[in-house]
Amino acid sequence: MYERLLNKYAINQLGYVVDDLERAARAHSALFGSGPFVYFSAPAPARTLFRGQEVQNTVDVAYGMYGDLQIELIKPTSFDPTPYNTPARLGFNHFSVWVDDFDAAVEDFAEAGFEVAMLMESSGGLQVAYVDCLDTWGHYVEIHNPQPYLVDMCKQLSTGWDGTDPFRKMGS
Asked: Are 142 and 167 a contacting pair, CB within 8 Å?
């Protein structure tokens, strides 16, 4: 079943929890040539449920590209339990799959024995699930519909990029 899931859903993004966005972006860029990273404070979600309980969930993020793979750096700014701090550790947190049928993808993971740890509705109405794969793979899997505007912006910035200014604020 695992092989079927990994073949069915492409990995579009790697997510890392960090304590310093700028330092992490510069380090990732220096090591892998990824970037440039665009930083912003994400709007608070309309609703977040972690293991069935409503929680506060705010983060600062920076997005960059590593080839065709998006890199998301996440700095939690709230303290309620979420996949960004449960378990409490920095580093690799999740890979993301972008799907056309959100409910079907969540069901596929459930049928494979993985439960949803967090359901979130973004301020813009995007449904996001974090599936708990910690015991099997050591990380979460994030599921949501594609967000082409964000990927397109990051790809445009990375096209022809010469490696200077690897950390930028949104709009600069």
From this structure: no
* Distance separating alpha carbons of residues 64 and 61, to the nearest angstrom: 10
Closest CA to 163 of 24, 8, 25: 25
CA angle centred on 154, ends 5 and 151, rounded to 5°: 40
- Strand order across the beta sheet in which 53-54 lies: 53-54, 47-50, 116-121, 127-133, 139-144, 91-98, 13-17, 69-76, 59-66, 37-41, 167-169
Q: What is the pLDDT of residue 148?
A: 86
Mind listing the pLDDT tens digit for each residue in 28-73?
999 999 999 999 988 999 999 999 999 999 999 999 999 999 999 9
Q: Confidence class of residue 170 from pLDDT cuts 50, 70 and 90?
A: confident
**Runs of H (alpha helix) within 9-101:** 21-32
With 0-12 / 13-18 / 19 or more C-beta atoms within 10 angstroms meaning exposed / middle / buried, residue 8 is exposed
